[in-house]
Specification:
The structure holds three protein chains of three kinds.
Chain A: E1 13-19, E2 25-28, E3 34-35, H1 47-62, E4 66-76, E5 82-84, H2 87-94
Chain B: E1 2-5, E2 8-10, E3 15-16, E4 29-32, H1 33-46, E5 50-54, E6 72-77, H2 84-95, E7 101-106, H3 113-119, E8 123-126, H4 132-139, H5 156-159
Parallel strand pairs in B: 3-4, 4-5, 5-6, 6-7, 7-8
Antiparallel strand pairs in B: 1-2, 1-8
Chain C: H1 6-27, H2 33-41, E1 45-47, E2 52-56, E3 62-63, H3 65-78, E4 82-85, E5 91-93, H4 101-110, E6 127-128, H5 142-153, E7 168-171, E8 185-191, E9 197-203, E10 215-222, H6 226-240, H7 251-258, H8 260-277, H9 284-292, H10 307-315, H11 317-326, E11 327-329, E12 335-340, E13 351-353, H12 354-367, E14 372-374, E15 380-386, H13 390-399, E16 414-415, H14 430-439, H15 443-449, E17 454-457, E18 471-478, E19 481-488, E20 500-501, E21 506-507, H16 508-525, H17 533-540, H18 543-549, H19 551-556
Parallel strand pairs in C: 6-7, 7-8, 16-17, 17-18
Antiparallel strand pairs in C: 1-2, 2-5, 3-14, 4-5, 4-13, 8-9, 9-10, 11-12, 12-15, 14-15, 18-19, 19-20, 19-21
Helix pairs in contact in C: 1-2, 1-4, 3-12, 6-8, 7-8, 10-11, 14-16, 16-17, 16-18
């Protein structure tokens, strides 16, 4: 895990990676599938949950689905939707801030509601 | 570990010794540079077939005077990203005129065979299960090369029909 | 420009097939990401924030109309309809898939292009003066040496796993537009006392975490020995460059720690030995074969001044402004070198849409000998335009948003992709460039300010060249918030200098105000319009700027 992707210790976390075939940012969902929308990410709040996420990531990497899985800090908004908290991950979940018509934000994914 | 030599999978008759392992006489032995330096005379007496393994940072200069008595020089790649051994292999061949086996050991991957072969390696310690076909395919993936190296390929500029420049410089 | 022969074509085609096999092995699970990563990087394929990113080499920044049209086609077919021109004269696509990458490379190979060695710890695309072959006082077209280096360095068996990446730049004039002093090797083509052509060889320049200005390792290298001398430098670097710390692995650190005299001694000794052992240098016939592709175009003689051109400037104010900033003198009377700005006010520096690329391809064919250049300033150049054609050209460019009159002015900003795309970035760069450009949108104000280069990087790797910006901006992350540090006094020309940090960083809004404050201070303090920003900074020092930027500190002191 690089310095850029290190999340802080403890707290609510989700698992993200890039999809092998096209590189798109993906998130582990509650049903064990990988989704493009961060709002559907499975969230775990304790060490055992984080370990379970990481184990699922290692499995997906070995299976050739995901590349470079890592944990990100997340929070829930008033509606209960999940969103990343760090700037880098907010941009990753949405798309480039300079091209609002490109990336997930253009496809109705991953929380355009927050500024 | 399997060994590919001259493009073929072959049985490796050489034994790589750890520094503290006792040597068995008459088995072809590859030892570290440190051990070679410490036990040079005894090693050369006991082993008709002796090889030395160089790590990155240990240049061929360290064994230049003994090269004609060494049958194998193993150049280690602790990681395939450490490219010092490519220069060492060329220096062994081109500067020291070494004619014995130059063996790539360590993290030796298929996609590096071509570079290694061009730099003067002629033996490759590879993952169990690696095939000679894969090796040959990898070394033939690119037919021609732009630059002269240690292999027998003629560089593209020469194939284009030009004659080599007079090899004079720095006079 | 250079055209592939059968050897070049076969080489690039085989390289595509090799990569196709590697991608297939990765997708089948035979290769792990760890094993595959260096292979994809050596074909220019990165994994960034949102997707893969493909960096395509534009050797020494020169393109034909056909090649540019193919770049447009790739943007449209495999990407989202645009591309990003970089400070290494390359183009990057931000959204290709891994599955499409071999097909994209195949499409490139068909027009004599590739992505070989646009990443990885190898010798990267050699860059050159974007005005090569078109301006006065050039000793030799630097693209000849660049092409010679491109061929020699392609899949070099000894130098594909260097301690770190390795960048070479070449200029053929004393006024340096290729930033040779901030490259691992800089080559300045010159004549010796006997009138022979050769190179001054500089080593150890670079930006990143430890910016350094290159030092001269050899004052004059006869040109026939270029490749053997480069091979000697690279061999010494490959064996002695640090591999224990990637931030200390560039050759600049070796130069710094070894000393230029000792390194020079090692290189000269290596050169002498290898020259006895092997033949690296090209025979004269091959050098001349390559040089022939860069013969100056056969431009019909024309009057130095054109009545139509002068009249159009009188009538069309926008054209007059554009000529003033974006049109440079050509070595042949009656012709001009044209900068096409990829920096519209509020735009993304270096971005071009597929439609813009297509148009520029057409214009190059019609007006500029079917030849285009990409500059390290992230703009395009038409190098051989008849003055009589300038007005028609201008109107076509203007219709596509490509006629912004701001070459080397305050809104001609270099910016890396930053945190909007880049997995390494700490902060966004592009929005800062856009905000600064909007703040200075008035052309009269830009003319008044004069030449001022702003360069923005989103992290210390300095892809946005902030160290050599007249005003440099470096994005940093402080507890999840983007901050921007300002430097002053950097420059990338023949008098290259590293800018120095001015003071505490600003947030995203504050940094735009701060830049404006710096510019206003300059305008107030300068001796007159003839004293450029850089000259004023040199004369005044940092204090007047600090006083205005950090008044509370002043009050406390």
């Amino acid at each position: 895990m690089s310095e850029k992707t290190r999340s802080k210790k403890g707290g609510d976390k989700a698992l993200t990676a890039n999809r092998l075939t096209d590189g798109v940012a993906i998130f582990l969902a509650t049903d064990g599938s990988w989704v493009e929308d961060a709002r559907e990410a499975r969230v775990e709040g304790d060490d055992a949950g984080h370990a379970a996420l990481e184990a699922a990531g290692a499995e997906a990497e070995a299976a050739g689905i995901a590349v470079g899985p890592y944990l990100i800090d997340v929070a829930r908004d008033a509606d209960g939707a999940v969103h990343p908290t760090r700037n880098r991950e907010v941009i990753r979940a949405r798309g480039p801030s300079t091209h609002p018509h490109h990336g997930k934000q253009a496809e109705g994914l991953s929380g355009q509601e927050a500024a | 570990m399997a060994l590919i030599k001259n493009g073929r999978l072959t049985a490796d008759r050489w034994h790589l010794y750890e520094d503290d392992a006792p040597l068995q006489p008459d088995i072809p032995a590859i030892v570290s540079l440190a051990r070679f330096k410490a036990e040079r005379d005894a090693l050369l007496r006991a082993h008709a077939d002796l090889g030395v393994r160089l790590e990155p940072g240990e240049t061929p200069d360290a064994i230049a005077d003994d090269l004609d008595r060494l049958s194998v020089i193993a150049l280690n790649f602790p990681s395939f990203t450490d490219g010092r051994a490519y220069s060492y292999a060329r220096l062994l061949r081109e500067r020291h005129g070494y004619k014995g086996e130059v063996r790539a050991v360590g993290n030796v991957l298929r996609d590096q065979y071509l570079f290694m072969a061009r730099a003067g390696f002629d033996a490759f310690e590879v993952k169990e299960g690696e095939s000679a076909e894969a090796f040959l395919a990898a070394t033939k993936a690119v037919t021609n090369a732009y630059q002269r190296a240690t292999d027998t390929r003629r560089p593209i500029w020469e194939l284009r029909g030009a004659q080599p420049a007079i090899a004079a410089a720095a006079e | 420009m250079y055209r592939y022969d059968e050897f070049d074509a076969t080489f690039v085609h085989e390289r595509v097939e090799q990569f196709r096999d590697q991608v297939a092995r990765r997708l089948s699970g035979e290769l792990t990401e760890e094993e595959f990563k260096p292979l994809r990087l050596m074909n220019g394929l990165y994994l960034q924030l949102h997707a893969y990113m493909l960096r395509v080499a534009i050797p020494y920044g020169t393109l034909s109309g056909t090649q540019m049209r193919r770049l447009a086609h790739i943007a449209r077919t495999y990407d989202k309809g645009f591309g990003h021109f970089t400070t290494r004269q390359n183009i990057q696509y931000n959204w290709p898939t891994l599955e499409d990458a071999p097909r994209i490379l195949e499409e490139l190979a068909e027009v004599e292009m590739h992505a070989i060695q646009t990443s990885g710890n190898c010798i990267r695309n050699t860059t050159a003066d974007p005005y090569a072959g078109a301006i006065k006082d050039e000793v030799e077209d630097p693209r000849i040496a660049s092409e010679v280096i491109r061929q020699w360095s392609s899949l070099h068996p000894e130098f594909s796993f260097l301690p770190r990446k390795f960048k070479i730049a070449v200029t053929g004039t004393t006024h340096d537009r290729a930033a040779v002093k901030v490259h691992d090797i800089g080559l300045v083509i010159k004549r010796n006392a006997a009138g022979e052509v050769g190179f001054e060889v500089l080593v150890g320049g670079g930006q990143g975490r430890t910016p350094m200005i290159a030092k001269t390792i050899r004052d004059f290298l006869p040109k026939q020995y270029l490749l053997s001398y480069l091979e000697a430098i690279l061999r010494v670097y490959n064996m002695l460059g640090r591999r224990d710390n990637k931030y200390k692995a560039r050759i600049k650190i070796l130069v710094h720690e070894t000393g230029i005299e000792e390194l020079s001694r090692l290189v000269e000794a290596e050169w002498e030995s290898l020259s006895r052992e092997t033949t690296v240098d090209l025979p004269r016939a091959e050098y001349e074969r390559i040089a022939a592709y860069f013969e100056p175009p056969d431009l019909a003689p024309a009057e130095a001044s054109s009545a139509a051109f002068e009249a159009a400037q009188q009538e069309d104010r926008d054209f007059r402004h554009w000529v003033r900033t974006n049109v440079k003198e050509h070595k042949v009377d009656g012709y001009a070198v044209v900068d096409i700005s990829l920096k519209p006010i509020g735009g993304v520096p270096g971005d071009a849409t597929a439609d813009q690329m297509d148009l520029v391809a057409d214009l190059a064919e019609r007006y500029s000998q079917d030849e285009l250049r990409v500059t390290h300033g992230q703009n395009l150049v038409l190098a051989h335009v008849a003055k009589d054609d300038l007005h028609a050209l201008f109107k076509e460019l203007a219709g596509a948003g490509l006629a912004t009159a701001n070459s080397r002015l305050v809104s001609d900003i270099i910016a890396c992709p930053g945190l909007d795309y880049c997995a390494l970035a700490n902060a966004r760069s592009i929005p800062i460039a856009q905000d600064i450009s909007r703040r200075f949108d008035s052309l009269d104000r830009q003319f008044d300010i004069g030449p001022l280069e702003i360069k923005i990087s989103g992290c210390i790797n300095a892809c946005g060249h902030h160290h050599v910006g007249h005003i440099g901006i470096l994005g940093v992350d402080r507890k999840g918030t983007e901050y921007y540090q300002l430097t002053l006094g950097g420059r990338a020309d023949e008098n290259a200098a590293i800018g120095k940090i001015l003071g505490p960083a600003f947030d995203a809004d504050g940094v735009v105000d701060a830049v404006e404050t710096i510019v206003d201070t300059y305008l107030e303090e300068r001796r007159g319009p003839d004293e450029t920003f850089l000259d004023a900074v040199e004369r005044l020092g940092f204090q007047p700027f600090k006083d205005r930027l950090y008044p509370q500190k002043q009050a406390a002191a």
